[in-house]
Amino acid sequence: MPIKILSVDDEVDLEVLLTQYFRRKIRKGEYEFFFAHNGIEGLKQLLLHPDIDIILSDINMPEMDGLTMLAKVNEMRNPALKVIMVSAYGDMENIRTAMNNGAFDFATKPIDLDDLQKSINNAVEQIRFIRESQKEHEQLKDIQSDLRIASEIQHAILPTNKNVLPKDLYDMATLMDPAKDVGGDFYDYFKTDENRLGFVMADVSGKGVPAALFMAVSRTLLKATGLRDLVSKDCMTNVNDLVCGESVDGMFVTVFYGRLNISTGEIDYTNAGHNPPYVVHADGKVEVVPAQGNMVLGAVEKFQYKNDKITLEKGDMLFTFTDGVTEAMNKDGEQFGEKRLEELLRTCGKKTSQETIDTVRAAVAEWAGNTEQSDDVTMLVIKRK
Questions:
Q1: Exposure winner among 44, 52, 54, 337, fewest CB in 10 A?
Q2: 215 - beta bridge partners?
Q3: Residue 182 confidence (pLDDT)
Q4: Phi and psi, residue 202, nearest 5°
């Protein structure tokens, strides 16, 4: 695209001079000139050609002088439009006023066209830099818009209906607070038959958009396989082989998958390299749910997973979470840690699932203070009444 230059000057001879001096650039399509003879005509040309890049404007002109036109140009708030003021030699007061009011450069009459060429080159360099910055700014806005939509989609695919469990027997609460617009943590729950609830707490390796995409794939595979009502270890074995086939750049996912027998409170579970959950008893006693030494999903194909069983007695609460809870850091770089979490959970024996989540989230936030959240914080809590 040619650099478009508007010359505003009441001296008609300048038009001939410019077109003659820059004739080669005009023929090559590098420059395109427009001409006006006072500030009013100059503003009209700007309306007709809003993509003009550079204005060469005399200061002393009839009807509207150059300083007035410069003020009008400034009102357009176009940082890529550069104004080079032209005035008689020695008219330093007006030239200084023009520079103070935002002119890019100045030239004195009689115009040294070689020097003017340097001023135009400098203006072109600035214009290109500004336009590249504007382009990057627009691209950033597009990315931010895409991330906002992705975040909305990610939250929309997470389940929200807590009525999958009978309210007279259980209460359940969840939280997912991503460190970025989108995250790699997720939870899920679904009925596998009339008396059994499958539930998932998972954390994908990495952060941001790649983790979010892998999260969506992993969640779909887990739910589709879980709905077949397989024993937890068989579900994890099948899903692992599928995830291994979808993994890119060594991505993996840690998973705690449980199958709750609603009538008895028994949970058949498999822990695939995830943070061990806790059982919080009504008296405040806290127990770690034993892990089985299983691999994370997506690391080793054909791995045979092991399962185990626990039972939620009446008044017991299962607290599952991701490492964004225990690895939250304060200003000194200290992590919240398992010990603090366990001490906090001992105070939650009589609390509801939602009250427990609120208590933990508040404590983690207080611990972190003004430190930027470095990881997703996700929790799923089930309490047998």
A1: 44
A2: none
A3: 61
A4: -145, 160
